[in-house]
Write a structure and sequence with these properties.
13 strands; Rossmann fold; disordered N terminus; 2 domains; five-stranded mixed β-sheet; alpha/beta; six-stranded parallel β-sheet
Length: 438
């Protein structure tokens, strides 16, 4: 779509009826994507504010506390200069609106656009001519075109004439937002030159390089980045399963296969999940009826909790035993439990009817929030979880677990450990704790 301009008379009338923008950016959705972005803009001298429906999150941010773990922002959040509002009317004050809300899948392979639709409905009455609207959350191909059609249907504005619209994907890793918002190139997808330029100028305040493209290519960049990692880890997990089935050690094999070999790198196995990886294959597969590599990768990664339980059970009984499960978040040293595979591992352990399952995750509160419809779980202190334990499953590779397993080796050397993350550092998935002392 080529850019057109509002006639001068119309622009003059608009300016007379509306005060000039007094903010540069309003972030709509100040969670794990939006809040680091807003704070990074603030540090860069951008006049920025936020909107969020979560009262607890607003209270935390507005009183100077990070509502989740994301290092590097402590001083910025403590300054209380980034304010999060409940009323979406504040978007009328900002020249750019950046939407960073969740885009999950429905129970079936189908993208859930309800959060984006709710945002559009809430901000539509406050849109003004000249607004730049940027989508930033991971979305399925065609979502930004859907937003364009929605705006044309439900407002009097046209993209490229009255409003500017772009898709500017985030590609940060959780826990590394402070560094990566400033170090990663920014993709800017737009269908008209004015939208593309406005978004490039905005994100140029942060990113070292701007790469310009159209809506769907920008959407696919983010999906392809995540899906490539997901498939890569699925292959690593399948190699681990094959090796253990044949009585071989995947870590020894990996070391030899990767050592001074220039053409590929085999990743380490692990529980591969989280909102950034597990759902994105569905955003592609929604539009394909055929079995493919992506669905196979999903099946492989989803099987790993069952693999750990089944293959440890081949070595030692789990029934009537005390079992510790270390970690409940989906990723090392974070407090994010969204789409974690740890709850699935817990359910498979329950089927073995152990005497007790002790969940311990120092990054989470006690009790640990369980999945919808289930009671919260007690979050045991780490050393209490390991006391007199018979079996240990390392569900997340938090840095504290290596030393904890060393302590376990001294007190319970015959306890069995399922350590797919290799936090024990002895290059074995299944071992008795005493092996850590050799």
């Amino acid at each position: 779509m080529s850019a057109t301009h509002t006639p001068p008379a119309a622009a003059d009338n608009f300016a007379a009826d509306h005060p000039p923008f007094d903010l540069d950016v309003c972030i709509v959705g100040t969670g794990r994507v939006g809040l680091p972005l807003g704070l990074s803009f603030l540090e860069a001298g951008v006049a920025v504010t936020g909107v969020d429906v979560d009262a607890a999150l607003r209270e935390a941010v507005n009183t100077g506390r990070m509502p989740f773990h994301e290092p590097g922002y402590e001083a910025l959040i403590a300054s209380r200069r980034f304010v999060v509002h409940a009323d979406p009317a504040v978007v009328a004050r900002a020249r750019a609106i950046v939407i960073t809300v969740g885009t999950p899948l429905h129970n079936h392979i189908e993208t859930d656009l309800r959060q984006i639709q709710r945002v559009l409905e809430s901000v539509a009455p406050h849109l003004r001519r000249g607004h730049l609207v940027c989508l930033r959350s991971t979305v399925a191909p065609g979502t930004t075109h859907f937003v364009e059609r929605w705006l044309h249907r439900h407002t009097d504005f046209k993209v490229g004439r009255d409003l500017l619209l772009a898709f500017c994907p985030e590609r940060i890793a959780e826990g590394k937002a402070y560094e990566e918002i400033r170090s990663l190139p920014q993709i800017v997808g737009a269908e008209d030159a004015e939208s593309q330029e406005a978004a490039a100028v905005l994100f140029g305040r942060l990113a070292p390089e701007i790469m310009r493209t159209n809506f769907v290519s920008a959407e696919l960049v983010k999906l392809f980045n995540n899906i490539a990692r997901y498939v890569h880890f699925a292959l690593a997990n399948q190699f681990a399963l094959i090796a253990d089935t044949h009585g071989a050690n995947i870590h020894e094999i990996r070391h030899m296969a990767n050592h001074h070999y220039p053409r590929n790198h085999i990743a380490a196995p692990g529980l591969t999940a989280g909102t950034c990886l597990r759902k994105d294959f569905g955003m592609i597969n929604e539009w394909s009826p055929y079995p493919d590599l992506l669905l196979s990768a999903w099946k492989m990664n989803e099987y790993i909790p069952a693999f750990l339980v089944q293959h440890l059970r081949q070595r030692t009984p789990l029934q009537d035993r005390r079992v510790a499960m270390l970690g409940y978040s989906f990723k090392a040293d974070t407090d994010d439990v969204r789409d974690s595979l740890a709850p699935k591992l817990y359910r498979y352990l329950e089927r073995e009817t152990p005497l007790e399952i002790r969940v311990s995750d120092g990054n989470l509160a006690d009790p640990t929030p369980a999945e919808s419809g289930t009671a919260p779980l007690r979050n045991w202190p780490l050393d209490e979880a390991l006391a007199e334990v018979d079996c240990v499953f390392v569900a997340t590779n938090h840095r504290e677990y290596g030393p904890a397993l060393q302590r376990l080796a001294l007190t319970r050397p015959h306890a069995w450990v399922a350590d797919i993350w290799n936090v024990g550092g002895i290059d074995q998935i299944f071992y008795q704790a005493g092996a850590l002392l050799r």
